[in-house]
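== Sequence entry ==
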Amino acid sequence: MQPEQPVTPMPDPNTELPSGPHATTLAGWAFQGRIITIGLVTGCVVMGSIFWMISDQPAPPAEADPQGDDTTEIIFVAIGAVALVINCVMAFLVPHIIRSAGALRLKTADNAAASVRLWSDWPERETLPLPLIRFCQTDQTARLIGQALLEGTAIINFVMMFLTQSAVNLLCALVALVGVLAMFPTISGMRARIESALKE
């Protein structure tokens, strides 16, 4: 009589996720978000520095209409300022809508009601249950969209600064970069959003 073979339990699709290149821990998601944030800011700073050095070069003398130059400068400055205002609003609203949808999916997931305290305090280096991984993915998507909007604003204003040498455009670009950095992901912030989503 042959001994019985041990039965390997099948993974629960609601609590387990197959291994892969994606992040499966809070620390992993935070690390990915930090790398992306640093890359976005570094790229903008390098581009802005290049534009600043180019625009600082003395322009060749040429006959021009001073009134026309002033009008063009005002238009370019206005474009940068309007882009900052609109994209700041969009960088708040769009991620909020995406996170709200993710929060609803997390709250209606299996065992969510009974796991509020457990999921809110999940160890940062332990593999997350599938509902939390999906929520973290949605959270990161929302953050990247907000950061991309502000990064685009910074680039627009760096270009306008190059064309007009206006300190207003430089200030708008720096404000946009501060907004990108303000979205820098932290584990405590992710835990707070998980807890908020489960308790809504």
